[in-house]
Amino acid sequence: MIAAHLPILQVAVPLLGAPLCTLSRSSRVAWALALALCGWAFLASLALLLRALNEGPFSYALGSWAAPWGIEYRVDVLSSSVALLVSALAAVVTLYARDSVEQELDGDRIPLFYTAYLLCLAGLLGITLTGDVFNLFVFLEISSLSTYTLIALGRDRRALTAAYQYLIMGTVGATFVLIGVGLMYLTTGTLNMADLAARLPLAEPNRTVRVAFAFLTVGICLKLALFPLHLWLPDAYTFAPSAVTALLASTATKVAVYMLLRFFYTVFGPSFSFHEMALGWVLLPFALVAIFSMSLVAIFQGQVKRMLAYSSVAQIGYIILGVAMGTATGLTASLLHLFNHALMKGTLFLALGCVAYRVGSTRLEAMAGLARQMPWTMAAFVVGGLSLIGVPLTAGFVSKWYLLLAAIERGWWPVAVLVIAASLMALVYIWRVVEAAYLQSPSAATARVVEAPATLLIPTWLLATANLYFGIDGTRTAAIAGEAAASLLGVVP
Amino acid sequence: MQLLGHYNYWIFVLLMMTGFYVVISTTNLVKKIVGLNIFQTSVFILYISMGKIIGGTPPILLESDRPLLYSNPLPHVLILTAIVVGVATTALGLALVVRIKEAYGTVEEDEIRRLDDDL
After folding, report:
1. ipTM higher than 0.95?
2. CATH number for the domain that contains residue B27
3. Is residue B112 in a domain?
4. Helix, strand or coil for residue B108?
């Protein structure tokens, strides 16, 4: 009975839980509620993914209104695996948030924090599951508005300006999406994704459709922080509370990438996107510049959180590079990296959160000699860092390997060389942290620091272990990514 | 003639670019929100325009042959949602400006940047 309604409950339950968190007025009750709902969302998306894997894609008609008229929720391997990723990381971060947030936020704001947190989760899950483009815009705004509030909760006053900056750029991006949706509706008279996909090719290839495509591309690229539209990201990640940074880095940009794939492949179709609009050649230079310039900028950062934020923009470049290749292998690599990058950045930002919890700063000089005081935290950081570099036996290796395969398959040797060179740049900036933590002697401030509490270490190590597990046995994730890529390209596996 | 016939789309483009220019050019945080508002409002005109087709009729059987004034209600409903989103964005943006004013004592972007550089 409930199983049939899972696609909508998945979104509705966190949405309804959010006001309850405000009403509870107690930080511990709000936390327990958020944890329960995130755990529930995780189990629900696991059930959806298993069903999509076994039975193939299925839809859910909202309020029993049939598809082109009513709102349709579409569950396939891609959407349910992204939903699983989002809810799994949200659950782990909630587990972590209790102590971290209690230290970083004022007590009366904590229930409001969990309210915004659950709204953000509901918005992100809604984007992944909906099959209606206007519904997607609404969920995009739900998740964005709650994200702005979450960032503004940071302790530093610069969190406010970072949130404001993101609000301006995010709203411009979302409005571009709205204009794109409007222009598509103008041409076809429908908002349903499957219906749009059927009707857009029937419309003569006209300027309205091309303009809609351009607006959607720019709008979504603003949300996913593709270079040069990434300007909001470094400040937002640096000044947001630790738990929020971990959540945003591992879910929000990933869902934006999902949105991009949905529009390019499902709605417009690969032949329109990649042949008529030559999307590959538009995205490729930006992806390459993102990988290089942002890795270079990351090397020179003294604030480790900001270093990882720039590294995130570079890693988004890798994901978009796979998309730009336009082949099945490239798309598989891109989806794998989407999943693995969420794991590695989650680990790194949670480990940094432990450092912030004990030391109170994440500047490089504050972390000198920290490995002696906080061995477990720094070990998790090293695991995440190795995964980011792409060392074998970590998750990062699997996706970099697929990316190299895809580049070689296309015959793009220079790109393959660039990918390896950029990994060495990641080695440089991760090494700067490792060198400070392991080889330098502790300063007077860090000498008295003790290891982070188990409530913070357990979630961090959950993600670190996931990095190792999916690095040693990448077959399952690669199979799911391959199947999702095949379904996007319209190839029957 | 056709150019003038689509005047509502021209107004949309004009408003959109005006709003966008204000967002980019001004350094005052409140004025930026005003620009953002104009930018969002222009999209409402786009949606309302597309609901109206001259000579369009509703799919309803009528007694008389008298032509009926008709607009597609769906874009109006869609834009009602977008208006709510716009109000929420404005409210949140202004709330942030209030807190920025409390923290920095100014709402001018360049002064805020100078204050942060001093840290």
Report:
1. no
2. 1.10.287.3510
3. yes
4. strand
